[in-house]
Amino acid sequence: MRALALLPSAEPKQPSTPTWSVLEGGLIEAGSVEPEAGPAAETSALRLARQIYAAWFQRCLRQGGHRKNPGAVAALPRAAIEHQLDRAIDRSGPDAAELLPLHDAQQQRLAELGVLISALAASDKQHVRAVQTWDRLIELGLDTLQGFADLEVVFAAQRAAQDPLTGLPGRAALQQRLQGEQSLVLRQGRMCSVVMLDIDHFKSVNDQHGHQAGDRVLAAFARLLRGALRPYDGVYRYGGEEFVLVLPGATAAQAVQIIDRMRQTIAQRPLVQTQTGGLHIRFSAGVAALNERAIAQTLRCADAALYHAKAEGRDQVRLERGHCA
Ligand SMILES: Nc1nc2c(ncn2[C@@H]2O[C@H](COP(=O)(O)OP(=O)(O)OP(=O)(O)O)[C@@H](O)[C@H]2O)c(=O)[nH]1
Questions:
Q1: Do the domains spanning 7-160 and 171-319 agree at the CATH topology level?
Q2: Ligand 1 midpoint to CA 138 (Å)
Q3: Structural contact between residues 53 and 100, judged by C-beta atoms closer than 8 angstroms
């Protein structure tokens, strides 16, 4: 077997991002770190946001507790916290929409905390208003801490549903999504298509380049699918080298066109680079309409269309045939 160094070519290297780190004793300082990649990246960004916040809150309690000098209450490093929260959301993948209400509520609390800090700094320490502002700051400060805990719980649940290799959600999430989309199709007459997609001759990638290389191809392919589709389209790892796409708003005929364009684009450039050259990946796909029939039947129809695409030579997209299941 040849030894190969596989370098993903689909994704540009990310620049280092200025961030903050928490030092011993609750001090916070600006620095520059390489953003982490991979499925755990969103959790680490969220953890950093919480650490920066907790260090600030601790310092605030220590300084503000004296009530001698409200102006000494530490300025809230809001930009650093929000930066990490945004990163966490960005990296949380296709189901980020579920996190947005919690994320927005957290941003609002931070904004209100910022206002309270300014009001405290400008107020007379003896004034009853300063005491009230301080009380509100403590109350909201604790709520914000709870907000981080809530976000972490939801992130953890989301991560548990993700396939660790590709970062994509799996079959359980697909089932849930299809149920939701089907009810919109039935109640609102919306269109939705389901695509079953399988990499061609993937076994030979493993055989020629090794299983680890195969894993990297799967991860790069998943990123490519995710990047090629609209944010509200669903991309799921169905198993092995098989993926399912959910395309709301697309008729089955439109879905065939969309996926066929994607097939041609993907075939044009290598998915990963090897020491001996680029590795091209091709795929076959079957498309079925999501309608009133059982979801399992829709999946069977997409699978049958995929089977025909494979049988008719691979590297093509096929629409389901009548009475497929
Ligand atoms: N590296 C890697 N390989 C996997 C993974 N899951 C499944 N496979 C491999 O995917 C290959 C699938 O092979 P086949 O079902 O024969 O399909 P194929 O070679 O793609 O051929 P066609 O689908 O007929 O075009 C098998 O060799 C599996 O071992 C994985 O997570 N990582």
A1: no
A2: 56
A3: no
In CATH, 7-160 is 1.20.120: yes
The residues near 15 (Cβ < 8 Å, ≥ 6 apart) are none
The best mutation among 201, 203, 306, 307 to test binding of ligand 1, ranked by most ligand atoms within 8 Å of the C-beta, falls on: 203
Tens digit of each residue's pLDDT (9 = 90 or more) over 264-290: 999 998 998 776 778 899 999 999 999
> Does the annotation mark 241 as catalytic?
yes
User: What are the pocket residues of ligand 1 if the criterion is a CB atom closer than 6 Å to any ligand atom?
Assistant: 165, 198-203, 206, 211, 214-215, 218, 240-241, 310, 314
What kind and span of H or E run contains 11?
none
ipTM, 2 dp = 0.97
Nearest CA to ligand 1 atom 1: 214
* Residue of minimum CA distance from atom 27 in ligand 1: 203
**Structure tokens of 42?**
């969103």
Domain spans, the chain = 7-160, 171-319
Q: Which of 42, 181, 241, 320 is catalytic?
A: 241
Question: From the alpha carbon of 206, which atom of ligand 1 is closest?
Answer: 1
Count the Cβ atoms, other than its own, within 10 Å of residue 217: 22
Name residues whose C-beta falls within 8 Å of residue 205's C-beta, 6 or more positions apart in sequence. 199, 213, 214, 217, 279, 281
- pTM greater than 0.80: no
Question: Which of the four pLDDT bands, split at 50, 70 and 90, describes residue 68?
Answer: low
User: Are 22 and 56 contacting, i.e. CB atoms less than 8 angstroms apart?
Assistant: no
Just give the CATH number of 171-319: 3.30.70.270
